[in-house]
Amino acid sequence: MSSAPSLADVVRVLDGLYPPGTAEGWDAVGLVAGDPVAEVRRVLFAVDPVADVVDEALEWGADLLVTHHPLFLRGTHSVAATTFKGSVVHRLVTSGCALHVAHTNADSAPRGVADALADLVGIAGRRPLVAKAEDTEIGIGRVGTLTEPVTLRDFARRVADALPATAQGIRFSGDPGAMVRTAAVVGGSGDSLFDDVRAADVDVYVTSDLRHHPASELRERARFEAATAGHPDGSGTPFLVDTAHFASEWPWLAYAAEDLAAGLAAGGLPGVETRVSDIVTDPWTGVAR
User: Which residues take part in binding a divalent metal cation (predicted)?
Assistant: First the structure.
């Protein structure tokens, strides 16, 4: 037996953890570059396939780079090194490093992006916010009860302490002293799911990339309905906690590394060395106040 699994072996395990068929129809997941018969000894996990991450992968001697975000989300007619994305492909291929993407299929999987985020912020007894078919373990987001009630301010601080620091930090909307007991989380952009969050009847919603108008309308509606229902403070829920997109998805990388190792072992395959990139690939680098 070889001392290292093949790329095909590793991809088979990754596809078992994050089945490509569970990805959203618009998504682009799976193997982007690499020879299936090549041996894999080192695997780097990262959120974004950007130049700095590729530098890290090649300097470390990775045989495979696994990222959450796709390099090519839309069709392309060229991977010439004269473009910044083509340059990424050429550098990886010429250095013998493959690229594999697990995006929305990793968002919805057990121990995927949503579960990793829910674990960090302390959500127990959870279920998907939007389940796929009748499978209660696979779906977008997670909803559940906090391990203990806390104020919105303290909950937002818990989120800030749990996630990688970014220039944006953590923003929240609602009465800082209000108690929160139930929560929903969605890694990455989540304001398109506001109707599902309202239907879940949670106290607070943690997600990323919240835009002004959807967030404002959600909070105004919540306050109006609370006042109409006879709550004099009119605070209303759900409250909102807004994180940097990169930060909300980064915790999953450690789960992916652990589960790849376990999957290879369960299949009787040789192990690989794994590493989680700690490069902050959030595009924002500072704030001015």
Answer: 68-69, 107, 245, 249
Banded model confidence at residue 134, pLDDT cuts 50, 70, 90: confident
pLDDT digits (tens, 9 = 90+) for 236-277: 899 999 999 999 999 999 999 999 999 999 999 999 999 999
- Residue 115 annotated as lining a ligand binding site: no
Please tell me whether 212 is known to bind a ligand: no
Q: In the sheet that 171-173 helps form, which strands lie side by side, from edge to edge?
A: 123-132, 135-151, 179-189, 204-208, 239-243, 171-173
- Annotated ligand binding at 90? The verdict is no
Same domain, 76 and 131: no
Was 245 annotated as part of a binding site?
A: yes
Say whether both 94 and 158 belong to one domain: no
Q: Which domain holds residue 198?
A: 110-243
Contacts of 245 (CB under 8 A, 6+ apart): 188, 189, 208, 209, 282
Q: Are residues 239 and 253 in the same domain?
A: no
